[in-house]
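Contributing: when you submit paired examples, paste them exactly as shown. First protein:
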Amino acid sequence: MQVLTRGALLKFGALLAVGGVDVPPDTDLAFARLLVATELLADDFYSQALKTGFLDGAALHEARANERAHYAGLAAILNEAGEPPATAADIDFSYPRGAFATAPSLRRLGGALETLQLGAYLGAADAVTSEPLRGIAARIGANEAQHLTMFEPFHSSFPVALSIEQASNALGDYTS
């Protein structure tokens, strides 16, 4: 089994810098930018969710650490392609009123955000043509499916893949 580490991503970045790997096409980079935004949203969500104390703190910490690792990997790809990634300071996050007020409302929001991320990553895995971005999207999608189970039980044998437009529209409900 091959494990994709942050070091492997940085090595890929070095190959990009010296011309050893082709820069991903613009359509792939657009998906990478969208995925970066979903990671920033998830990081913000988990940070706020931890403050409530309503859910298992260890699981939320682990999920947030995963989101930060996902961001770092995607950011490395964008940086090496000459496109600095967005940061949390670039985005205003917004949530439904009362989303953090109770454990059930927090679970609903977490489920909605992880469903959005899973759909975006599945869409990227279908649409992206460059490697390692395509493989990374599939691997991160698997991790997002794990996160989703913290908020809702399994309910689909074939989760829905979102196009870049669908994912962007859904992300717009939480960002400005």
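Second protein:
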Amino acid sequence: MKEDKVDVVMWTKNGESFLPTVLKQIDKVIPSENLSNKIMVDDKSTDETVIIGKSYNWKVYMNPKGGISSGANEALRHVRSKMFVSVEQDLVLAENWWEKIPLLLEDEKVMVASGIRIPDKPSALKLIGEYTNQRYLQQTKVNASFPYGKTLDNTIYKTKALRQIGGFPRLRINAGVDTALVKHVNCNGRLWKVDFGVKSTHLRHGFVNELRHGYWYGKESVALSEELGEEPVLSSMLIRTLFSPLRGLQIAYDKMCWQISLVYPLMRLSTFLGVLRGHSEQTSDTDFK
């Protein structure tokens, strides 16, 4: 598999702060003799994203409808290789990514493969990520449909197989395209493998931004559950939030970092508040209809 040429795709929006670092690492990790086309689909960036992409020899296309679903499928439309790689604009590939991840596709049942990602900052959030990855490692081994660790940001796909199942899920929201794809892959009798030993770096802007992101994701997760035909997440999120101080203390002790006892509950709370907002908006829409 590693001897084959691959296309690399990326969907972007106002990513200039991290993009040079991300693009340099792609050129470093994936050998030039294995790299075919570099395809970037931009979602109306107002910064230097497009200029930076072109300066690193990426072919830049416009996102026709906006959002991750549209951007991912537009990128797929331009792929010509048997396998292709997706890297998101804030993800620095692990040094051993090319040595490890493409090999997972040698299994005929495996359609998608990826490593995991660890946030670069703050340090407490990085340690929480390491703890969570270790905790869920065994669960992914016994449950192929378990979505944790399966993201679109350091991922390789069998192109024909992905097209056969309809490409990337077409969602109305930006959150959860990866979660929906996990479900589609497994429903079609295929597998998504994750190597937890391949750790790419997820570049972050800081803790306040993470709280905002958690709130946004919580709000979007309500609509995601509806689109996937799953049960609402409110009750499970409430339980996790109520017990988060205890879990935070457990992780803090395990990682010997007292800041985690504050960071973890705040992250859970921000996500839960987002879920409450999402349910409130959903209820208002239902009443209006």
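If you have annotations for the second protein, write them as plain sentences, like these:
Residues 6-202 form a domain with the Spore Coat Polysaccharide Biosynthesis Protein SpsA; Chain A fold (CATH 3.90.550.10).
The longest helix spans residues 260-288.
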